[in-house]
């Protein structure tokens, strides 16, 4: 039989329901795969006892009948989610030793649906990064490899992407503030969806930029993304921005086809110096949707080029406020103090020791753009440009466009360490196609669509109307089927 | 445009409550300047009469009843504190 850990969520669900497989067997297969994959550094806190306990409970529930789809499905949880009694440190030294007394809403919903948590997944520190190289746990490594180089799985949800691609778990939670689900999904040949802002509760997820952060699933297929997303969504009174809207049956919406649907191709995403392979992949994707009956139209999103600078004002501004809570008083690390040090020295030393360089940089940029004299010039101006960026999308959707097709990333996965000497702004360019979606609060999904000439996966992104995850997943599945991406990384770890 | 000098970098680090050694301030100033230069493209955009975004989805924040829903768990709240004594968070002397 197929190794159980390589099954999709849909396949495993069906096998569990038929009694061909138990949740304990499935969980044990994943735990074994995890223990053999330390070279990937994807799981940074393993919870095997908890997993087996939940698997046994899932088996009992399955035996009783009428268990939800996620019942007995082993998943990994990004370290950004607070999990009760289990280390949750946002991959930061400043949260060393933090064991929350509570469970995030999203991970609680998965738990209550019967999903089995295998452990916590590596990520960039406080989700700030595009390569998983800012983590206090060290780099996560992409299971895809074409030469001697170890490649990045992308970031910030790098551990989630690596774990799903390497069959260590059947699905994983990610979070996406500027592309942190979609870029790692593209780099690892997996599927990642960031839902509409407000679909998933942010309660219990360590905050980075609260107006942009959204959780979402990372899976091996679009169908799995639909199944897992549904379990993660829903209104939560603990998050005032959580939407009080019914959650549709996303899986049931699949298979409707794209006949007559209008797909926009934004001309401003044709960046100068874009690799020809990315351009071809994009054109091929448009052809696939056209062949499936969609109408392909050229559209314009005129403020696209201002999305990255807007993001890099707003996200650090919000981060500098959110990260003010790490002061060495209530949780995590506190610096050793010298004789005569007062509370200010405690704050300054704790934060200097606890935050890595990229987090310090962003907190200080945020502090600067919010400071007296610069607030209007930077922060308020960025918020106005954000209004214009959203208006661009509103106009296109009002003109009848159902979804927008773009590349997911400007390149395939790069080597770990290759960007070390680059200007931070060079790293920020990874988010060029994804960041607009967060600024406009829209749903976006990355779907694996092909391999580059080295043999590394490349992804396409589809952007949907607000709250139309169902339609977006349906279109994404058409693209997934047409692209027929079936490659898996050859096991070297 | 607005290049950040060492003095400004020192002030920003102070406001952010992050100790930056004196000899690292010039490098920090350079990095912050580069990032700000990148942001200055926003100056090209005509934003006259545009409202700054406060909420990305056009919905009114939910109100809740003004009632106590949780509490009476000081031990759990203090359980992660680096220094907790007698039911309080302990910090170095604040007032001389």
Automatic annotation (TrEMBL), chain A:
Catalysed reaction, written as an equation: L-glutamyl-tRNA(Gln) + L-glutamine + ATP + H2O = L-glutaminyl-tRNA(Gln) + L-glutamate + ADP + phosphate + H(+)
InterPro entries (alphabetical): Amidase, Amidase_CS, Amidase_dom, AS_sf, GatA
SUPFAM superfamilies in the cross-refs: Amidase signature (AS) enzymes
EC number: 6.3.5.7
Keywords of this entry: ATP-binding, Ligase, Nucleotide-binding, Protein biosynthesis, Transferase
Domain (Amidase): residue spans on this chain: 25-473
GO-annotated molecular function: ATP binding; glutaminyl-tRNA synthase (glutamine-hydrolyzing) activity; transferase activity
Active site annotation, chain numbering: 78 (charge relay system), 156 (charge relay system), 180 (acyl-ester intermediate)
Pfam families: Amidase
Keyword Ligase: yes
GO term, biological process aspect, one: translation
Domain of life: Bacteria
Cellular component terms per the entry's GO annotation: glutamyl-tRNA(Gln) amidotransferase complex
Transmembrane segments: none
Family of this protein: Belongs to the amidase family. GatA subfamily.
The protein's assembly and partners: Heterotrimer of A, B and C subunits.
Function (record text): Allows the formation of correctly charged Gln-tRNA(Gln) through the transamidation of misacylated Glu-tRNA(Gln) in organisms which lack glutaminyl-tRNA synthetase. The reaction takes place in the presence of glutamine and ATP through an activated gamma-phospho-Glu-tRNA(Gln).
Entry protein name: Glutamyl-tRNA(Gln) amidotransferase subunit A
From TrEMBL, chain B:
Keyword field contains Iron: no
One biological process term in Gene Ontology: glutaminyl-tRNAGln biosynthesis via transamidation
Top EC category: ligase
SUPFAM superfamilies attached to this UniProt entry: Glu-tRNAGln amidotransferase C subunit (SSF141000)
EC number: 6.3.5.-
Catalytically driven reaction(s): L-glutamyl-tRNA(Gln) + L-glutamine + ATP + H2O = L-glutaminyl-tRNA(Gln) + L-glutamate + ADP + phosphate + H(+); L-aspartyl-tRNA(Asn) + L-glutamine + ATP + H2O = L-asparaginyl-tRNA(Asn) + L-glutamate + ADP + phosphate + 2 H(+)
Family of the protein in this entry: Belongs to the GatC family.
Protein's name according to its UniProt entry: Aspartyl/glutamyl-tRNA(Asn/Gln) amidotransferase subunit C
Species name: Rhabdonatronobacter sediminivivens
């Amino acid at each position: 039989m197929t190794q159980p850990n390589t099954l999709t969520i849909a396949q495993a669900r069906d096998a569990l329901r038929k009694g061909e497989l138990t949740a304990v067997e499935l969980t044990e297969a994943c735990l074994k795969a995890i223990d053999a994959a330390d070279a990937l550094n994807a799981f940074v806190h393993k919870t095997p006892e908890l997993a087996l306990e939940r698997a046994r409970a899932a088996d009992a529930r399955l035996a009783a009948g009428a268990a939800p789809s996620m019942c007995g499905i082993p998943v990994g949880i990004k370290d950004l989610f607070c999990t009760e009694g289990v280390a949750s440190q946002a991959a930061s030294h400043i949260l060393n030793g933090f064991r929350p007394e509570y469970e995030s809403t999203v991970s609680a919903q998965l738990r209550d649906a019967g999903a089995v948590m295998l452990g916590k997944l590596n990520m960039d520190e406080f989700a700030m990064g595009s390569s998983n190289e800012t983590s206090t746990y060290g780099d996560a490594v992409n299971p895809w490899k074409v030469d001697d180089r170890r490649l990045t799985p992308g970031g910030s949800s790098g551990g989630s992407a690596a774990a799903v691609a390497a069959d260590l778990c059947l699905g994983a939670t990610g979070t996406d503030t500027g592309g942190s689900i979609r870029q790692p999904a593209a780099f690892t040949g997996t599927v990642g969806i960031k839902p509409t802002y407000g679909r998933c509760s942010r309660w219990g997820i360590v905050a980075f930029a609260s107006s942009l952060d959204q959780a979402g699933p990372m899976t091996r297929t679009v169908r799995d993304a639909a199944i897992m997303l549904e379990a993660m969504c829903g209104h939560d009174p603990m998050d005032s921005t959580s939407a009080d809207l019914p959650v549709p049956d996303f899986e049931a919406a699949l298979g409707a086809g794209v006949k007559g649907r209008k797909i926009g191709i934004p001309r401003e995403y044709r960046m100068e110096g874009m690799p020809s392979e990315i351009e071809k992949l994009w054109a091929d994707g448009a052809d696939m949707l056209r062949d499936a009956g969609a109408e392909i139209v050229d559209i314009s999103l005129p403020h696209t080029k201002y999305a990255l600078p807007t993001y890099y004002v707003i996200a650090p501004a919000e981060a500098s406020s959110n990260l003010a809570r790490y002061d060495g008083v209530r949780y995590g690390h506190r610096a050793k103090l010298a004789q005569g040090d007062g509370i200010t020295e405690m704050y300054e030393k704790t934060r200097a020791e606890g935050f890595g360089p990229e987090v310090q940089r962003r907190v200080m940029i945020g502090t600067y753009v919010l400071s007296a004299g610069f607030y209007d010039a930077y922060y308020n101006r960025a918020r106005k440009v954000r209004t214009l960026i959203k208006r661009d999308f509103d106009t296109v959707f009002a003109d009848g466009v159902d979804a927008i097709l773009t590349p997911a990333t400007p390149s395939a996965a790069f080597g770990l360490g290759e960007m070390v000497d680059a200007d931070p702004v060079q790293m920020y360019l990874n988010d060029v196609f994804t960041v607009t979606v967060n600024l406009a609060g829209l749903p976006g999904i990355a779907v694996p669509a092909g391999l580059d000439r080295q043999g590394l996966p490349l992804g396409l992104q589809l952007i949907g109307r607000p709250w139309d995850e169902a339609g977006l997943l349906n279109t994404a599945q058409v693209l997934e089927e047409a692209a027929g991406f079936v490659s898996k990384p050859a096991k070297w770890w | 445009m607005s290049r950040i000098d060492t003095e400004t970098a020192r002030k920003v680090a102070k406001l952010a409550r992050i100790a930056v050694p004196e000899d690292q301030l010039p490098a920090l100033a350079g990095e912050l300047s580069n990032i700000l230069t990148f942001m200055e493209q926003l100056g090209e955009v005509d934003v006259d009469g545009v409202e700054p975004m406060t909420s990305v989805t056009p919905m009114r924040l939910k109100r809740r009843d003004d009632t106590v829903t949780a509490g009476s768990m000081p031990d759990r709240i203090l359980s992660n504190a680096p220094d907790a004594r007698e039911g309080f968070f302990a910090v170095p002397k604040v007032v001389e």
